[in-house]
UniProtKB/TrEMBL annotation:
One GO term of the biological process aspect: methylation
InterPro entries: Methyltransf_25, SAM-dependent_MTases_sf
Alphabetized SUPFAM superfamilies for the sequence: S-adenosyl-L-methionine-dependent methyltransferases
Highest taxon of source: Bacteria
Protein name: Class I SAM-dependent methyltransferase
Domain Methyltransferase: residue ranges: 51-142
Pfam families membership: Methyltransf_25
UniProt-recorded Gene Ontology molecular function terms: methyltransferase activity
Organism of provenance: Streptomyces xinghaiensis
UniProt keyword Transferase present: yes
């Protein structure tokens, strides 16, 4: 049974998240994992001339790429976050667009060298809908890469997720969790030539690792 996403309610949720997650003194930085300085960097994207980040959040990763001379565009559902990032990173050349990611990918014809998500839209959008749309927005040999927490054993598919605590107004969304082999299968079914999904161990034993997925278009 597909999850039912209430976009208006999710927009309010991510606007609330923006108020706490965005830091005015943040610097550009690119890290796939939730641990600073841990794991690979943007080299997983290859050597792109253009990138699209889906669910770009605070914009730090996009600003980092833009400073390297890459044409960098980000899409985020939260108008509050997009207003903040547009102001904060204006000097980097990064571009931020407020849109629901599936609508944006469906309604625009731009083609990118790489599309990526860091704990972003690839975690919160139905992969059955998202992956074919991403594939269409990539040029030959283009890279799609994303990271998020790994699935909890035995808890697969769409998972309900409250945000902002468990008291007060009920704000929730859905995240999608699968075993690495299933992510690979979903990507190849969507038309990607190759797909590799793996879990990177945390820097401290017993801590939560990071699912890292990379797929390449034909």
């Amino acid at each position: 049974m597909p999850a039912h996403h209430d976009i208006a309610a999710e927009t309010e949720l991510w606007d609330t998240f923006a108020a706490s997650a965005f830091k005015e003194d943040a610097e550009p930085g690119f890290c796939w994992t939730q641990y600073a300085g841990h794991g690979p960097g943007p080299e997983l994207l290859g050597a792109p001339r253009s990138v699209l980040e889906i669910g770009c959040g605070t914009g730090r990763a996009l600003a980092h790429l833009a400073q390297q001379g890459i044409a960098a565009r980000g899409v985020d559902l939260s108008p509050v976050m997009v207003e903040k990032t547009t102001t904060k990173w204006a000097g980097t050349g990064a571009e931020f667009v407020c849109s629901e990611v599936l609508e944006y990918l469906s309604g625009h014809e731009e083609v990118y060298d790489a599309v990526y998500s860091i704990f972003g839209a690839a975690w919160f959008a139905d992969p059955g809908r998202l992956f074919p749309l991403v594939r269409r927005r990539l040029g030959p040999g283009g890279v799609f890469a994303f990271s998020q927490p790994p699935a909890i054993p035995g808890a697969y598919g769409p998972q309900g997720m409250y945000k902002g605590g468990f008291a007060g107004k009920a704000m929730f969304t859905y995240r999608y969790s699968y075993r690495p082999a299933v992510w690979e299968r979903l990507l190849t079914r969507a038309g990607f030539a190759t797909a590799d999904a793996r879990v990177i161990d945390a820097p401290h034993p017993g801590h939560i690792g990071t699912l890292l997925v990379r797929a390449v278009a034909p």
